[in-house]
Design brief:
The chain is built from 16 helices and 14 strands. By secondary structure, the chain is of the alpha+beta class.
Length: 413
Amino acid sequence: MCIDLKTFFASVECVERKLDPFKTDLVVADPSRGDGAICLAISPKMKLRGIKNRCRMWEIPKNIHPIIAKPRMKKYRDYSIYINTIYLDYVNEEDWFAYSIDECFIDATPYLNYYKKTPKEFAKMLIDAVYKKTGITAAAGIGTNMYLAKIALDITAKHSKDNIGYLDENLYKEQLWHHTPLTDFWQIGRGIERRLFNLHLKDMFDISKCEESLLYKEFGINAEILIDHSKGIEPCTIKDVKEYKPKSNSISNTHVLDKDYNFEDARNILIEMVDNLILDLVSRKKYASTVSLYIGYTKDKIPPMKFTVKLEQATSSYTIILNKILSEYDFRVNQFILIRRIGIFFGNLKEKLIEQLDLFSIHEISEKDLRIEMAMNEIKNKYGKNSILRGLSFTENATQIKRNKLLGGHNAE
């Protein structure tokens, strides 16, 4: 089964105020970001009014005056941890997998006989336990595999009075083969939906009947997932998920700026981001072999600038990596167009450092940088992220001090 905490952030804010989420107009958003701020969550009552989750503040009808709760990500994380301990009072950790801050999968198979419950009764037992201890309402999708459980949650549970949906392969075909839009289905975004439309595939029934070679030609190896899911098939189990180790080996730092930045100010933000990412690299005891940079301009019609370069040798040196990124930034980025998005990626990470010695003392630079980064990490871990910073972070348009107070890109406290 897949269990989700309904409008989680908004429900937490209502519970903290001793208000009923189903009787209260409340949005979780940062008012300092203006009418264009995204509502991270809206209360169930506002959803019943037809207002969409993740709307912007200006999209809320003028006749509705909701409570505006500033995001408190640490608070939501603490609630999430506590609620998951409630689940673990009933199941073993090996049969539980946290999918997101407000969603988890549970393999209920071993517990139905033990608790003498049907699948729906077992799900209701967990939902009731969460509500009794926190006041937060949960919903559950039950399926004969992880995919069907997720789809039962996302599509059928919301139309059920008890907030529980159930699907097996036959019910999936009967109820959802012709369901639209396709974006309601797990792992199908607008881009994939558009490509399917171009193949004249409008629903899961069409995909299930499509010539497989055509799908493989369009989607490559990912066609296997589409083909299986169109038939309600998913061989992956919670055990498989927990044992999976991704082949990709990279770390990244992306930043959507709160205003348009000119070339020089964005360059300073870039330096802060490189510093932050290298601290992460050092703490993981990894060495980067490639660096990539993404710059999104404020004018949508102008394509973003992006590139990847290979370093001469794998390194975690602040000096070497920063100089490489800045030289590429200065050469490639348009100096006359304002910037709104920056992304940095360190790729092809190595576990061990194998250096090619040369005549220019690169080894000495790397060793010095490493000692500095390790010392900074030690201080930050002990006294907080803002306990030691480079002077650049105290300039007018710097963002590192503010970002260090965020959790998941939003206010932590």
